[in-house]
Amino acid sequence: MTEEVKAPKKEKIPRQKMPEQEPKVRARNFEEVPHGYTPELAQKEAERCIQCKDPRCKQGCPVEIEIPQFIAKIKEGDFEGAIRKLWEKNSLPAVCGRVCPQEVQCEGLCIIGKKDEPVAIGNLERFAADHQRLHGRDVLPPKADPTGKKVAVVGAGPAGLTVAGDLILKGHEVTIFEALHGPGGVLLYGIPEFRLPKAIVAQECNFLERMGVKIEVNSVIGRSETVDELLERFDAVFLGVGAGLPVFLKIPGEHFIGVYSANEYLTRSNLMKAYEFPAYDTPIVKGKNVATFGGGNVAMDGARTALRLGADHSYIIYRRSHDELPARSAEVHHAEEEGVEFLLLTNPLRFLGDDATGRLTGVECLRQELGEPDASGRRRPVPIPGSEFVVDIDTAVISIGSGSNPLLTKSTPGLSLNKWGYIVADPKTGKTMKPRVWAGGDIVTGSATVILAMGAGRMASNSIHDYLTYGW
Amino acid sequence: MFEIVERQEMAQGTIISNWIKAPKIAAKAKPGQFVILRANEKGERIPLTMADTDPAKGLINIIYMVVGKSTALFKTLQVGQGYLDVIGPLGQPTHLEKVGKVICVGGGTGIAVLYPITRGLKQMGNYVYSVVGARSKDLLILEDQMKAASDELMICTDDGTYGHKGFVTDKLRETLEKHKDIALAVCIGPVPMMKFCCKVTKEFNVKTLVSLNPIMVDGTGMCGCCRVKVGGQMKFACVDGPEFEGHEVDWDELNLRLRSYVAEEKVSFDQFKGAHAPGCSCSR
C-alpha cells in the first residue's frame, strides 16, 4: 500500500492571530479592533488548511462558500482568485469575515479543530475581501444576459443585499428600497464602527451598485409606497426589513432621560455618528456609568460603545451566568479585555431617577442563582429573596432582543403573520402566503445573525430566480 | 437633493416656511402626517409635520420655528438649495370625519400643523370654530388660511396686540360653554398649551386630539426614542401617532423627555452661532 510511504512530517503551523489594537487604547477610540492579516500571515494561515475532499466547513456555512477552494487561492498567492471564489457565493465577504459567528459555523466544523485550533476561515475571508478593496484590480464578477425581469428588494440589510447581489448576477433588474438615508441596515446603524467600519459597508453597497443594483434610500415601504404598489411595477418583491422593533424591560422608570433601547443608542452612535458630536449634529448621553442589559452581541456592542464614549464604568447586566451569554465568544472576550464589568445573575427591577430633571440615577436589581434547566435546556435563573441592590448609573442601554415592526406588515394585505407578528415564509424558499412576495431575515425568524439573514436571502433569491425563469 | 422652490420668513424671521420638491411624498401625504428632514451629511434627522401639500406640483410645505442649531441651519437654505434627505409621509393621518361641530385650537407653529386638519374637518362638512394664538401680533402665522378653513376664527395674543388679550384656553372655554354640542376638539401647539387645553376640554368632556412632537431618530418605530405614555401605555409617536387622545397623555413625562439634550443643544447652537457671526441671520 502506497500510503505507507510517509511524507516527511510537516512542521505544525499554529493558528495565526490578527494583529489588534491594545485593549486599553482601543477602548477609547472607534477604530477597528483587529488590523487584519498581512499577505504573509494570510498565506501562512492558508497553509494550515488540509483541503479536505468532503469539506465539513462548507456545510457549516449558510451561504455555502467553497471554503477550501478560496483558501487554496490565498495559499497560492492568487488573491484575486480568492475573492472571485468568494463572490460566487457571497456578495458581502468583507462583512462576513468580520461579523459571522465562525466558531459555531465553518470553523466549528473544521477538522483541524478536532485536535488543534481550527483554520481561521473568517480571518482569511476578511483578508481576501480587504486585499481586493485596497490593492485589487477593478474587477467585477461576470453577469448573465439581461432577462428583462424586475425585482424589488425591501430593506438594504444583509438579507436584501444578498438577494440583490444574487439576482443581479443572474441578469435581473434589481431595485432596493431602504427606509433610512443610507444602505446597510443593521450593518450601518447597528454594528459599531470598531467592529465593522462603515467605509466597508459603503464599499460593499457600492460594489452592488456598480453591478447595476439601484438603491433608493429614504423609501419607507408601507408609507411612501405599499407592497401592492411595488407589485404593479415589479415581477417579484423580497421583504428583508429586519425585526426593527425595540423591546423594553417593562419595568418602572423607563421614561427617564438616559434610558435607551439598544436600537436608539447604536443608531445615534453609528448611523448618526453621535460619537463625533458636536462635529455631527446628533447628540447622545455620554454617560459616566453605563449599564447595558442583555448578553448578546448587540449588548456587547452597546457596552463597548459606552466605553468609547468615555464611560468610567460600563456594565453588562445579565440575568443568567457567563456560560449562557448568547454573544459570540470573541465579542465577550473583547469586552472583558476592554474593561466591561459583568454583573451576571442579576435582574433589574426598576430604574431610579431624579423627578425634577427627569434624569436616570440608578437601577435597582435583584441577585439570582441558577436553578433547574428550563425548556431551552438552559438552567433557569431563580431570584434570591432579599438580595436587592442598587447600581448607580446615568445611562441604560436595553438590549434584550427585538420584536417585529408592524409598519410594513400591517400595510400589506395577504401576508400571513405568526403570533409574534413575524412573516410566515417557507423555510426552504422564503415564499410567503402572498403571491410574488418572498421574505427572509429577522422579519421571518426574529432577531438572529447577519449570516443567517444572508442565508435566508440566498434561498429566497434561488426561489425568485426559479420563479422568474420557469414561472414557479 | 430635495429642492426648496419657495421660501418665506414669517413672524419676524423666527418661523420659516419652505415648499419642497418631493413628488412621491406629496402624492401620498395626508393631514396629520410628518416628514423627517436632514440638511446635510452631518445633520440631525428632524421630524416636522407637513402644513400643506400640492400633489399636482409635487410639493410639500413645512413650517418650522428656529429653536436650535438644526433649524437655524435649515433657515440658511435658500430657494434652489435643499435638503439632503426628506423621508415620509410618516405617522398616522388624522382620522377626519363628520361629527357636527368641532373646535380647532392652535398656538405658535402648532397652527401650521393644525391648518390642514382644520381644512379637512371643514371639507368633511363640520362646523369649525378655530382659536389661534401667539405671544404677539407679529408672531401670529397663517391667519388668512385659518380664516378660510374655519367657520368662525378667534384670535388671542398674550400681550393683547391683536384679538383677545390672553391665552387660547380662555376662548376655548368660552366657546365650549356657549356651544355644548361641540363634539371634538383638536389642540396643537407647545406642550403647556396642549396640556391646559386638555384640562379645559376634560371639564366639558369633549374628546380632544393633540399632535405630539417628541424627539425622534428613525421615525419608523425602530428606536423607541419618541416613546410617550398614553393611557398608561408606552406608545411610539412616530408610528402610533403623532396624534393621540389628549386626555390620556402624560404631559409631564413628555415635557421632561423633550429636555433630554438641552445641554448638548446649547453647545451645538452656540458653536453654530459662533461660526456664523458676525451678521446674525435674523437681520437678513
Short description:
The complex is a heterodimer of chains A (472) and B (284). With 472 residues, chain A is of the alpha/beta class.
Structure in words:
The complex is a heterodimer of chains A (472) and B (284). Chain A has helices at 23-26, 39-46, 56-59, 67-76, 79-89, 93-99, 106-109, 121-135, 158-169, 186-189, 198-211, 227-233, 262-271, 297-308, 329-338, 406-409, 442-445, 450-470; strands spanning 150-154, 173-177, 214-216, 236-239, 244-246, 259-261, 289-293, 313-317, 341-343, 346-353, 360-373, 379-383, 389-392, 395-398, 402-404, 437-439. By secondary structure, chain A is an alpha/beta fold. In chain A, helix 4 runs antiparallel to helix 5 and helix 4 (67-76) packs across helix 8 (121-135). Chain A is globular. With 284 residues, chain B is α/β, with parallel strands linked by helices. Helix content of chain B is 30%, strand content 32%. In chain B, helix 3 (110-123) links the parallel strand 8 and strand 9 (127-134). The longest helix of chain B is centred in the middle third of the chain and has 14 residues, at 110-123. The mean pLDDT of chain B is 94. The interface between A and B is large, with 38 and 42 residues.
